[in-house]
Structure formats: structure tokens, C-alpha cells
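Could someone model NAP with this protein?
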Amino acid sequence: MQRAVAVVTGASSGIGAATARELARSGFDVVVGARRFDRLAELASSIGPAARASRLDVTDDQSVVSFCEAVPECRVLVNCAGGALGSDRVADADLARWTEMYESNVLGTLRMVRALLPKLVASGDGHVVTVGSVAGFETYVGGAGYNAAKHATRALMDVLRLELLGQPVRVSEIDPGMVETEFSVVRFDGDAERAAALYAGMTPLSADDVAECIGFVVTRPSHVDIDQLVVRPRDQARVGVVHRRD
Ligand code: NAP
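Reply:
Sure, complex below.
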């Protein structure tokens, strides 16, 4: 039998890379995209013939169109591309960072959904899975730019679910708390020490923990739509409310 195709964005690192591995293990052919092609090629060769890598910048219309045109069919789209930039307070907000966060997390997701929706519908059992965040419904000091973007991603998924009612496409949002990936290093402009300090004395989720949740969501029977799945480390009750053992 032919294997179903899953597209995973943001697969050069963290949750996206782990999700590509997880879905390939669950029997999907995976098409992985991100800007750093060398990382993607390494991932694809570690997965084997079930994986294909293509360069993708979700903030660029043409890049999304070319990437999606090369995907012949698609049953699952997992939107992982995105992240946070900085932790400026509103008074000092850097508009360029806000714009970039909105571009990758929100408009990037929109571009991917718009381009692949006809193929998801045509599959007869399509599924859009978007990695949001607890930042999409819990705000925190210094979080406004990322909070605003993830709140918007959440609204986009909610509306999509309404608009697709009656079509054979599920819409799921996975909202993780703290996951140790490159996320915080990117957020803090490459400051690995500052990023590591966030996880001091507590046990964060791993990218594999979140990928397993995504694997669970996409392998439910097709009438079952897990519309939101919130997953946090036991050591985190809310954004900024963390139990540390030291
Ligand atoms: P990560 O390790 O930094 O991975 C982010 C991925 O997004 C990378 O593969 C990056 O690839 C890709 N990406 C960023 N901008 C892109 C663009 N313009 N076009 C294509 N790909 C792009 O962080 P992560 O934790 O796995 O993050 C994955 C998702 O989970 C993000 O949406 C993030 O907001 C969300 N999330 C993370 C956490 C956490 O604590 N880590 C918690 C909740 C939600 P390239 O740089 O190679 O393009």
C-alpha cells in the first residue's frame, strides 16, 4: 500500500526534526522543510528513503509556492516553523522582531495552509497540525511580541476549523510549555548560557516528548479531532511559574 505523505516545516531542529522522525516511524513518507538545508539533508539521510528534504522559508511567498508545488500529495501538514525573538517589554518593543515573529509564526502558517489545502482535501483525510504554545493563551512580562503571534496562530487555527467543517480535514493545535531545543538560544540571539539558565534545576520537555504527542494526534481514527493539546513539564504550572530543585 502507498504511504501517506506528511509535510513538516521547521524540521532542521527541535520539535520539527523530532516530529519528522516520529511520523516516519509511524509509516508516513515525510517531506521536511526549513531554511538550513544542510541540517535537513542530514535529517533526511538519517531517516532514509521515507524522507525528502527541500529548502523552505515560510516568510517568503515564492519559497512556499515552489516547496508546495513539489509535494505531489499531502495528508498531514505539521507547522513547526517559528519561534520567539527577544523578550522586550512593550515600552521598548523592537518592531522588526515583532514583524519577523508575526511573519514566521502566523503568516508562515497561513501560507503553508493556503498552498496545501487543496491537496489535504483531495487526500480525503487531511490533517493540519500547528505547534502553537502556552504563550498563545498565557501572557507574561517581556512576552508580548511572541504572545501576540501565538495568540494569532491560535485564532487562525480556530477559524480554519470553523471554515473547514464538512470537509475531510482535521485541525489540531499542540501547545507546549517549556521544551529544551534551540528555541531559547535563538530567542536570546545565540546566548547559550542565558538559554541554559532557563532550564536550571527543572526538567523541561524534550523535542521527542512533543513529537510523540503529535504522532498520537495524527494517528487517531479520522473522525477523532484533537483540537487542542496542551503539554507541559511537570515542573511548570504556568508560563513563569516553575518549580526548581536548587
Ligand atoms: P527550534 O529548535 O529553534 O526550531 C525552530 C525551527 O523553525 C527551526 O527548524 C527553524 O529552521 C524553523 N524556522 C524558523 N523560521 C523559519 C522560516 N522563516 N522558514 C522556515 N523554517 C523556519 O525551536 P522549537 O522549540 O523546535 O520550535 C518549534 C515550534 O515550537 C515553534 O513554532 C515554537 O514557537 C514552538 N514552541 C516551542 C517551545 C519551546 O519551549 N521550545 C514551546 C512552545 C512552542 P531554520 O532556521 O533552518 O529555518
